[in-house]
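[Meeting: bench + compute handoff]

Bench side (C.D.) handed over the final construct sequence. Compute side (W.E.) agreed to return the predicted structure before the next meeting so the bench team could plan truncations. Sequence as handed over:
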Amino acid sequence: MKILVIGSTGRVGMRLVEYSLDKGHEVTAFARQIDDYPVRHPRLSLVTGDVLYPALIEAAMPGHDIVLSVIGLRQFSGPITLLSTGLRNIIHVMKKTGPRRLVTVTGAGILQENRDELIMDSISFPPNLQNLSMDHLRMYEALRESDLDWTVVCPSFMFGGKRTGTYQVEADYFPRGVQNRVSVEDVADFITREMTENTFIRKRVGIAWPKGMEVEEED
C-alpha cells in the first residue's frame, strides 16, 4: 500500500512513517519543513508542502491508496482554523484526484458525552481547550459532509511513552472505565492497524489505556 502522511514531522506523524515502513508499505512524508527529516528509507519519499495550498497537496496525492492527516499546532490560544482549513483542502483534493480512504486525529471533545451532547459541551470540559475543540468539530463536520471513507481517532491526553499495543477503543464515545491518557506511540499503532483493517469507516474512535495499566511516560 502507498501511504501519504500529512504532518509527518509531528509526534504522531513520525511514528506513522516509521510503523508504516516497518509493515512494508511505501510512504510519502509531507510537511512544510522536510529537508532535514531524520528518517531515510528506500520506500520513503519526502515532499515539501503546506495544507493551506491545495496545489501542493494535489501535486503529492496521485498514486496513493490512503491519506493519514496528523497536522499539529504549536499555539493553542486565540481563534484556531488551520486544522479544519487544511483538512477541507485535503478532502477537496482527494475527491478530485486521490484515494477515498482518510484517517485523521482530533481530541476527544468531539466524541459523544451521551446521545444528545458532545464531551466538549459538558460543563466539566476544560475552557482552554474550547477553541481547539471547535476546530476539531469543524473537521468532523467537513468529513461527515464528504463521501470519503474516513476515520477520526480521538485520544484525550497523549504522552510520549511506549508502544504497548494494549488500549481500548470505542466508536463515537470515549471508552468507559479507562485512563484519561494514551501514548503517542499507541495512537500511531492503532492508526496503522485501522488503515488496513477498516473497522471504523465513517466513525469517530475514542482510544485510551485500560485502568490499572502502568506505563512509564517520557518527557
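W.E. noted at the follow-up: The chain has one domain: 2-208. C.D. will use this when planning the next construct.
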